[in-house]
Structure formats: structure tokens, C-alpha cells
Amino acid sequence: MSFFHSSDSLAFNLNLHSPFDFICLKCCSCCYQRHIELNELEIARLSQFLEIPESELIKKFLIPGQKPSLRTKEDGSCIFLNQAGCQIHPARPLVCRLYPLGLLFGQDGEEKWGLMPTHPDCLGIFVQEKTLEEYLLSQGAIPYLQFERQLRNKGK
Questions:
Q1: Which helix (H) or strand (E) holds 146?
Q2: Are 21 and 126 spatial neighbours (Cβ–Cβ below 8 Å)?
Q3: What is the model's pTM?
Q4: Which of 4, 46, 48, 152 is deepest in the core (most CB within 10 A)?
């Protein structure tokens, strides 16, 4: 389909019924040079997964601020990436669950989905065996998306 081509990659023309699936081959190329902001739910889930208090998580692994973000190592990799891959994969943030999808929220709260450019070294495979909604379910993204929607509704 045309939305898999790089010329259309920022069109945000996908919806929940669009054919979409991405098979991650765990090359970890998407785990470098990223700025990953976290919300309260993501911080709580990471803290629970790592079995450490939120204050310790923030001190050791996050850059504090209004929107805390994951620290990176000197090589630009995520603080949670090691030789075996992602140490927090079951509790990974929403942006990691969505990759390579992008999500924009319109003024009225409308969700606009698009395919973001993948890293040149990404080994992941695009297939059309699922819908975007099924992909989101398979990635465990639904509770994170619901929380984001609640945050946005609060801001209105």
C-alpha cells in the first residue's frame, strides 16, 4: 500500500481499520538518539516493573522536568538498552509500543495516525495481516492510549 512508502510517511492518513502490522526483529536501531517523554502512568508502571520507588526511578533513569524523559547513555542509546535488548520491554512507554507509528491529536481530540520514517538500519518488516487497531492491541498500547486521552480531556 502507498502509506508504506517514504514519500507518504508523514501523511497521517491511517485509521484504526487501516491494514497495518510491523514485525520487530529486535535490531534495537530505534533505541538510539530518541527523546522519550513519560507521563505519570508510564513512570508508575516502570517503577512497579523495576520494583523500585518512583523517586529512585526518577533519580537514576530519568531527566527530571515538567515532562520527565528517559536518560540516554553516552552512545545515544536508551538507558534501558543492554546487550540482550530492552530491559523494560514488558513495561515500555507508549512511544516504544507504537513504533513506527506516529500519533497526532487534532484540536477536537481527533486522533491522526501516520507511519513515521524508520531508522535506516531497522530490520523490522511491514505486513498487512492486521489492522492498526489489532496492532495496537498486540502491543499492549490500549491502556496507555486511554490514559493519554484522559490527560488530554483534563487539559480542555
A1: helix 142-154
A2: yes
A3: 0.87
A4: 46
